[in-house]
């Protein structure tokens, strides 16, 4: 079980492709910083390879004015939720 932290916008298609190839069946993806834009319904297929195991950091959503524009399949977590995700996953990898 690995937690993947992604900070790249969905325009960084190569990063999303590399991440999808490394993403395991028990893994989870947390969108932070500019990756929050991928949590919007208009981002389309950017999150499809991750099978609904995706969260987005609330503080980063608010900072970008996106708090009201999150796809229902993406869970919104605050900093405590971020901490909980790190505690429940064996390893963590950052995609920058």
Give a description of the structure:
The protein has 96 residues and is of the alpha/beta class. The protein has a single domain (2-95), classed as Hypothetical Protein Ychn, Chain: A, CATH 3.40.1260. Helix content is 27%, strand content 22%. The protein contains three helices and five strands; from the N terminus they run βαββαβαβ. It has helices spanning 13-22, 58-63, 79-88; strands at 2-6, 28-31, 54-57, 75-77, 91-95. It has a five-stranded parallel β-sheet. Helix 1 links the parallel strand 1 (2-6) and strand 2 (28-31). The model has no long low-confidence stretch (mean pLDDT 95).
The H/E string reads EHEEHEHE
- In the CATH hierarchy, the architecture is 3-Layer(aba) Sandwich
Mean pLDDT: 95
Structural class: alpha/beta
What is the 3D form? globular
Query: Helix content range of the residues, please?
Result: 25-40%
Strand content: 15-25%
Number of strands: 5
CATH superfamily: DsrEFH-like
Rounded radius of gyration (Å): 12 Å
pLDDT < 50 stretches? none
Briefly note the CATH topology name.
Hypothetical Protein Ychn, Chain: A
Protein name: Sulfurtransferase complex subunit TusB
Organism: Salinicola lusitanus
């Amino acid at each position: 079980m690995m937690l993947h932290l992604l900070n790249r916008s969905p325009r960084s298609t190569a990063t999303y492709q590399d991440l999808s190839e490394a993403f395991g069946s028990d893994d989870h993806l947390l969108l932070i910083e500019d990756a929050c834009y991928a949590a919007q319904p208009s981002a389309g297929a950017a999150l499809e390879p991750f099978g609904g195991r995706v969260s987005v950091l609330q503080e980063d959503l608010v900072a970008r004015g996106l708090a009201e524009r999150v796809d229902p399949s993406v869970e919104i977590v605050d900093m405590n939720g971020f901490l909980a995700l790190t505690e429940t996953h064996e390893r963590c990898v950052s995609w920058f």
